[in-house]
Amino acid sequence: METFEAQTIDEAIAAASAAFKADRDQLDIQVLEQPRHGFLGFGRRNAKIQAKLKRPVQPQKPIEKKPAAKSRPAKKTVVVKTAKPTDKKQNVKPAADDSNEPDALEMERRHQANVQKMNQAAQALCGYLKDVLAALGVTAKPKIVKLRTHELVIDLQANNSGRVIGFHGRRINALEQLGTAFLSYHDVDDPGLILDTSNYRQKRQQSLEKLAARCVTEVIATGQAVFLDPMPARERKYLHHVLEDNPRVKTYSHGRDPYRSVVVAPKN
C-alpha cells in the first residue's frame, strides 16, 4: 500500500485516485492519521492515508456434476466390543499461554519507537521556543540536556536569562506549560518537561528550602497557618517533600490552578 498525505482526508483520497488512475470505489483506503488544525500556531498535522487497488472479483467456474455411482447392497458389519482401558488419567496441566505477552525484542522496539517520537517532538519544540522568545525580544538557543521516553530537559541558553525567567519565574513556567501542551499535540504520552536557564531550577529549590524553614518558624511562633503565594505543581510537590518529616507542621494544597498554593499549618 502507498501512503498519501494532504490537509484533509478527501484531498488525500483524491491524490490516491490520481496516482492509481482509478475511482474512489476501486481503492482500498486505510486512514492512518486524522488532520489537526493546531493550537496557538503549533500542532498542525496533515491527514495521512494508505491506499491500494482492490483486487477484481474473478467469476467462479461452473461446477460439473459427476454421474452418481451405482448403489451396492450394504454389507453387514459385526461390532466387536472391547474393554475400555482402566489406566488412570494423569492430571496434565496445560502450558501457560504466553502468546499475548510481548517478548523482549518487541518491548525494545516499542521503547525505541517512543524515544524516536520524543526526539522528533523535542527538536520541533526547540524551534518553537526559539521563535516564541524571539517574538518577545529575547535571543535564546534551546539545548536538549536530557531526553527519555517521557522526560525532557531543555536549557534555554541566553545572554539575559532574567528575561527568560520573568518575574518570580512566571515566564519560564508559562513557557514550560506551553511546551508540555506542544509535546502532547505531537503524540507524546504523559510528557514531563523541564525548562531551565542559568541553573535557575536548582537555585529555585534552594530558595524553596529557605522559604520552608521560615514558614516553620512562623507557624511555631504564632500557632497559625501560613498561606504561600501560588506556585507551579512541581514547586508545591517539592515543598511537601521538604516538610513531610517535620514533627511540628503539616502541609496541604489550597485552591485551584493556576492559583493553587501551599499551606503550612500546625500539626496538632
UniProtKB/TrEMBL annotation:
Segments of this protein annotated with the region Disordered: 52-104
Highest rank taxon of the organism: Bacteria
Subcellular location: Cytoplasm
SMART domains reported for this sequence: Jag_N, R3H
The keyword Repeat belongs to this UniProt entry's keyword annotation: no
Keywords: Cell shape, Cell wall biogenesis/degradation, Chaperone, Cytoplasm, RNA-binding
Pfam families documented for this protein: Jag_N, R3H
InterPro entries recorded: Jag_N_dom_sf, KH_dom-like_a/b, KhpB, KhpB_N, R3H_dom, R3H_dom_sf, R3H_KhpB
Residue ranges constituting the R3H domain according to the UniProt record: 202-268
Purpose: A probable RNA chaperone. Forms a complex with KhpA which binds to cellular RNA and controls its expression. Plays a role in peptidoglycan (PG) homeostasis and cell length regulation.
Subunit: Forms a complex with KhpA.
Name the UniProt record assigns to this protein: RNA-binding protein KhpB
